[in-house]
């Protein structure tokens, strides 16, 4: 198959899991090409895949390191035009390069383009309903949820969820699936590029990654201050955002890293922002997590609730985090024993399952 991946460029979680999947498909004789934008475009290119520029559909904005719906709406005020441009770009690529199939990772217009051309399309997501800790019942989240649910029902041929099947779904609070549509969603397990059981583990560092958006910089600066007060802990911080704090004896920052798993594997605790991709990678290695979640973000809170229920991590609201709270959270995480997920992981091969789904779509 000749496959086009259209990948959301907000953060690197979408690009990370999609490139892992594409690498596996390429090993099985399929040709994979990408379309993305921003830092995800650069990340994909460094992974060695051909990648085309595609118009962004939305621009995330924030204040003091936290997601801001108002700023995002202002920055994305031309969404209808942006979606039209993205649709145009995707349709042109699908036509000019004679792609057999589209895989869209949270890129909506590309799905419409594929459907208009009669090209099978699959949609990767870990969310069809939205809520934030600061406004769980707000009408705008309900409205957005309805729009996305209707899209997922009508446009893609199949919805692929890179998470464990219920009742073990980490992103379970981010889904509301009607009984009649359950077969339209496939919970395939995490998309990992190697068996976690074969990865050497140690407990040497505190791993930290909050995402690569520019408005996260204040959180990284805070973490550097915390590291100064914790000289017995070695911090390794990962972000592609320019302007990160200077390195010190126990605080080291990394830009682009092609594979984060070896760094996670040697951590004692992983400090994350609550996105599904990094949570799944940490849990697959049995690492407890501290989640500094954005209370205004429409995904992180629900993921973090599930992780806490599992006994795998500690949640802190990003708008209330202090050195003292983070010290306490790290201490609590260090004595957690996350549940053993080896049985679940051994029963699921996300990449192979997706390969079967896509080959079936192509042949049908």
From TrEMBL:
This is Glycosyltransferase. Belongs to the glycosyltransferase 28 family. InterPro entries: Glyco_trans_28_C, UDP_glucos_trans. It comes from the Archaea. It holds the Pfam family Glyco_trans_1_3. Residues 244-332 form the Glycosyl transferase family 28 C-terminal domain.
């Amino acid at each position: 198959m000749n496959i086009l991946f259209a990948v959301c460029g907000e953060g690197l979680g979408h690009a990370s899991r999609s490139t892992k999947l594409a690498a596996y498909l390429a090993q099985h004789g399929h040709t994979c090409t990408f379309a993305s934008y921003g830092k995800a475009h650069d990340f994909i290119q460094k992974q060695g895949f051909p990648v085309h520029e595609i118009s962004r559909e939305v621009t995330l904005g924030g204040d003091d390191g936290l997601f801001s719906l108002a700023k995002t709406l202002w920055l994305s005020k031309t969404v209808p035009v942006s979606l039209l441009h993205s649709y145009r770009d995707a349709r042109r690529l699908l036509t000019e390069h004679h792609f057999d199939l589209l895989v869209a990772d949270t890129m909506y217009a590309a799905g419409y383009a594929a459907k208009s051309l009669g090209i099978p399309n699959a949609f990767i997501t870990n969310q069809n309903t939205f809520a934030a800790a600061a406004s769980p019942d707000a009408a705008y989240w309900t409205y957005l949820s309805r729009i996305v649910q209707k899209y997922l029902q009508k446009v893609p041929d199949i919805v692929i969820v890179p998470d464990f099947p219920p009742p073990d779904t980490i992103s379970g609070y981010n889904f509301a699936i009607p009984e009649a549509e359950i077969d339209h969603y496939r919970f395939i397990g995490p998309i990992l590029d190697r068996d976690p059981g074969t990865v050497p583990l140690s407990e040497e560092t505190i791993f930290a990654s909050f995402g690569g958006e520019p408005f996260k910089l204040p959180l990284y600066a805070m973490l550097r201050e915390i590291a100064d007060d914790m000289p017995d802990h070695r911090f390794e911080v990962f972000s592609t955002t320019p302007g990160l704090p200077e390195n010190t004896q126990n605080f080291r920052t990394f830009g682009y890293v092609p594979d984060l798993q070896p760094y996670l594997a040697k951590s004692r605790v992983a400090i994350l922002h609550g996105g599904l991709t990094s949570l799944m990678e940490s849990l697959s290695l049995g690492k407890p997590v501290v989640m500094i979640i954005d209370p205004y973000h429409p995904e992180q809170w629900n993921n973090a609730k599930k992780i806490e229920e599992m006994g795998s991590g500690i949640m802190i609201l990003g708008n209330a985090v202090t050195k003292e709270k983070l010290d306490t959270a790290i201490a609590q995480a260090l004595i957690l024993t996350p549940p053993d997920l080896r049985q679940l992981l051994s029963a699921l091969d996300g990449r192979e399952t997706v390969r079967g789904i896509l080959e079936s779509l192509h042949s049908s």
